[in-house]
Design goal:
The protein is of the alpha+beta class. It is built from ten helices and six strands. 53% of the residues lie in helices and 8% in strands. The N terminus is likely disordered.
């Protein structure tokens, strides 16, 4: 029977991260956000009143006397409410979402593609407004889609492999895979690249944890964080990185050899590939 996430993952494996953000914390965040925005509006109105007063006595508008004192950092408060409040609200909501996703551990159940889309959404003008409903609905949707997201992460890693290397089999994951552009090397030594390759490595580790029925690590403690520390500690020479799932050997040209330590988990990943690509050798 082909492996699916539903057959190998216990529910509690994916539910432990959100305990940090309880319902009372969410209510406090939403309430604090709304109070802060109301107070900012009050400040804008107060400055408008002060500006009218100073103009009536010949002192000019608030923008005039603020600029004369080179107080440019506060001039955004002197714009009209309908102009400045949407910008302030988006910036505030954007930072709250970033903090929520980090503290809740939700980034840990998003593959590289989902995280990239999330960050793009945050930088757009259509940032979801912070509210109790929007927070809960976002978290619920992420949990609901987690199985599809995790499988997509593995498929994207597989599809991105270069077939120029004999170790990379075009029909399945082998004992070892070779990836390009994971590291860089220059006169200061080795560094781990901040790129999609780094995210894909995290996706691969995440799937191995899930297929073994273990709780996934926080994204701040995943294999990329540990590999970064390892490379930083041995910057001038390429030392093989080892953990429970991988042996990683990296090279000056930027490529890395990833050897899987648990063949049974590789077989399960290949069953997922066969499910998405029927007829592949991985299925047999």
């Amino acid at each position: 029977m082909p492996t699916t996430l539903n057959t190998v993952i216990e529910p509690e494996v994916l539910t432990g991260h959100t305990e940090v953000i309880c319902s009372t914390s969410i209510e406090r965040i939403v309430t604090g956000r709304n109070v802060a925005l109301e107070q900012i509006k009050a400040l804008i109105h107060q400055l408008e009143d002060i500006s009218a007063l100073t103009k009536s006595i010949g002192g000019g508008l608030a923008r005039d006397w603020a600029m004369k004192q080179d107080f440019r950092c506060g001039c955004w408060l002197m714009e009209k409410e309908e102009t400045v409040m949407p910008v302030i609200t988006r910036n505030l909501d954007r930072d709250i979402w970033r903090d929520l996703m980090k503290k809740s551990g939700m980034l840990s159940i998003m593959d590289a593609q989902a995280r990239d889309q999330w960050y793009r959404n945050l930088e757009s003008k259509d940032v979801p407004a912070i509210s109790t409903d929007s927070i809960y609905s976002t978290f619920e949707r992420l949990h609901h889609d987690k199985g599809e997201v995790f499988e997509r992460g593995v498929i994207n890693v597989f599809k991105s492999l270069s077939w120029d290397y004999k170790s990379n089999h075009p029909c399945k994951f082998g004992k070892k895979i070779i990836v390009n552009s994971l590291v860089s090397y220059n006169q200061w030594g080795y560094t781990l690249n901040h790129s999609y390759r780094r995210d894909q490595l995290a996706d691969l580790e995440r799937m191995l944890y899930l297929l073994e029925g273990k709780a996934i690590p926080d994204n701040r403690q995943d294999v990329t964080a540990r590999l970064y520390e390892h490379i930083s500690a041995h910057r001038q020479r390429a030392e093989v990185y080892e953990d429970d799932y991988f042996s990683i050997k990296y090279f000056m040209k930027g490529s890395a050899h990833l050897t899987f330590k648990k063949p049974a988990l590789v077989d399960k990943m290949n069953e997922i590939i066969a499910k998405h690509y029927p007829g592949m050798l991985a299925h047999s």
